[in-house]
Amino acid sequence: MATSKQLQFIASDAMALAVREGLSATPKHLPSWLLYDQIGSELFEQITELPEYYLTRTERCILERYAAEILQQAGPSLTLVELGAGTASKTCILIEELLQRQSRALFYPIDVSPSALDQAVRQLGRQFPSLRVSPIVADYTGGVPALSRISGRKLVLYIGSSIGNFEPPDAVRILRRIRQTLWAGDALLLGADFAKRSKLLLPAYNDSQGITAAFSKNILARLNRELDADFNLDLFCHIALWNRRQSRMEMYLESTTAQTVFIPALDMDLYFEPGERIHTENSYKYTDEMIEVMLRQSGFTLEQSWCDRKKWFGVHLARV
Ligand code: TRP
């Protein structure tokens, strides 16, 4: 139990503001970044290894198969930048190929998590002695001005389909801000999930072992831990829906009964109707045309795309 002083402090921070705003709105919602505390990030790591979650595995296969072609197309003497690098586990595939083509290389991983970047620096330093890694702790969604000071041809990696977690106008805004820090000839490598039958999508966001449900509910567990809330996790269930019209997966937590929840740190009483939902995240799924339009609206030109045989996932190279 937090002391009243801690509660006061907590109530003034970004999390408290977001929770207050989202849970007093109709319909109720919570920002998806709340999903990713230490526990949530570990659960998401487990999701990426689930048989049903084809995204991570499929993207890795595409990178392994086409790394040489991708780098050839991107151009000679590349400096790599990665947006939302995390621990940069898929990036190794491209770095390995890059170091066969040039004897030395620079890599700028960008992430909001200093601990994830630390891990990336240590791991990559061990694995690739001729790679110079310069981590940048930043939220790339606001653009990263430091990028414009990097000399030489850049390839900006934005893989993992994170772009799909932003609303289309926000996605364009983010890509445009990145574009503004690049020079003619620089390139962007964008990983994005393709729209597909709901029969394939639904299990990816609601697996048989319940790992995704645990990940989804962790947002409520986090409010219990950090804001002293009294959500009963057994009275909520994880829901994943395919919205075909908007081409996105939608994730919710649904109250299974009428209930009230108290959040002491916000001095907030919440009422839930039976079946009432809290929206937590969208994950957009793209057609080729959507990718082309999004890149064009951001000031990029789509040059080449690579995908798996079933066309479940795509990796797209665009030029400034
Ligand atoms: N970025 C992931 C994605 O869109 C997030 C995610 C996977 C997710 N499974 C989830 C978010 C379940 C909420 C609930 O694929």
Short description:
By secondary structure, the protein is α/β, with parallel strands linked by helices. The protein has helices at residues 4-11, 14-24, 38-47, 54-74, 91-101, 114-127, 168-180, 198-204, 211-227, 288-297; strands at residues 28-29, 78-83, 105-111, 131-133, 136-137, 153-158, 187-193, 236-243, 248-255, 259-263, 268-272, 277-284, 301-307, 313-319.
Detailed description of the structure:
- With 320 residues, the protein is an alpha/beta fold.
- The protein has ten helices and 14 strands.
- It has helices at 4-11, 14-24, 38-47, 54-74, 91-101, 114-127, 168-180, 198-204, 211-227, 288-297, and strands spanning 28-29, 78-83, 105-111, 131-133, 136-137, 153-158, 187-193, 236-243, 248-255, 259-263, 268-272, 277-284, 301-307, 313-319.
- The strands form three sheets. Strands 2, 3, 4, 5, 6, 7, 13 and 14 form an eight-stranded mixed beta sheet that branches.
- The longest helix has 21 residues, at 54-74.
- The N and C termini lie far apart (52 Å).
- The mean pLDDT is 94.
- Bound molecules: tryptophan.
- The site of tryptophan has 13 residues, from α9 and β12.
- Tryptophan binds next to α9 and β12.
